[in-house]
């Protein structure tokens, strides 16, 4: 038989947790776990506690409320605790409520600047694009391994980004004949996976 273990507390939704959700179900039920994990990501990144409780248990919702009120180290079902740095309403909207219309590929230097130094996306770090998008559209930002590292509202169209990728911001005017912004995506219009 399968080794079934209930995870009582999840402080952070990691790739390991996501992989567990992708595993096959059993008579105890993991069907729909991927959807539940996705819901938990939305909740925890919004600063909300989410509990997946045992539906067969009588008065389970009241028991969950009592559990949360007591603030003890006891968890009913699986409790997902909120992220410390919750997304602002704007960044929550960018991450969960819009569909990307294309993607921008970035090099390791740009990835580092976005993930760890909280910088805007400049043309110099862009290595390529996919899709057809206009200025003001939402796009995915992917690293050289094709993993999404964030999303953001672009200041330039796909054709414009293709012309200015890899250049210094000072060169945008010479390549396009005009300049909208020095950044392809400003930090205020961007959400990075797992944080601001």
Give the oligomeric state of the chains in this entry, treating copies of one chain as homo and distinct chains as hetero. Answer: single chain
Q: Low-confidence parts, pLDDT < 50 over ≥5 residues?
A: none
> Count of helices?
7
**What does the overall shape look like?**
elongated
| Total beta strand runs | 8
Q: Which strands sit side by side, in order, in the main sheet?
A: 5-4-6-7-8
The first-to-last residue Cα distance is 42 Å
Strand content: 15-25%
Helix/strand order, N-terminal first: EHHEHEHEHEEEHHE
**Structural class, please?**
alpha/beta
Major β-sheet annotation: 5 strands, mixed
- Average pLDDT for all residues: 83
The radius of gyration computed from the alpha-carbon positions, rounded to a whole number of angstroms, is 21 Å
Fraction of residues in helices? 25-40%
Question: Could you characterize the architecture of this molecule?
Answer:
With 196 residues, the chain is an alpha/beta fold. The chain has seven helices and eight strands. The strands form two sheets. The protein has a five-stranded mixed beta sheet, with helices on both faces. A three-stranded mixed beta sheet has the order 1-3-2, with helices on one face. A hairpin with a 5-residue loop joins strand 6 (138-142) and strand 7. It starts with 8 loop residues before the first strand and ends with a strand. 24% of the residues are buried.
